[in-house]
Design goal:
Elements (H helix, E strand, L loop, with lengths): L3 E4 L4 E9 L2 E6 L7 E3 L5 E5 L1 H6 L4
Antiparallel strand pairs: 1-2, 1-5, 2-3, 3-4
């Protein structure tokens, strides 16, 4: 949880917040907005790990 990812199929970036029924739950990187789920992790690319985000003060 907490990795910043690129959802290739939706062409948007998000933060992994949870897993629900085998799907990844994502929120927008900045600000509010609609959360979404991704069933197939093959469509996700990690762009920044939680540890990298923490080192930059983004967590």
């Amino acid at each position: 949880m907490g990795d910043q990812i690129r959802d290739v199929s939706a062409d948007r970036s998000g933060i992994v917040t949870d897993m629900s029924d085998g799907a990844y739950v994502l929120r927008p990187v900045h600000g509010g907005g609609t959360w979404w789920t991704v069933d197939d992790p093959a469509h996700l690319e990690v762009t920044m790990t939680r540890e990298q985000r923490a080192a930059e003060g983004r967590v």
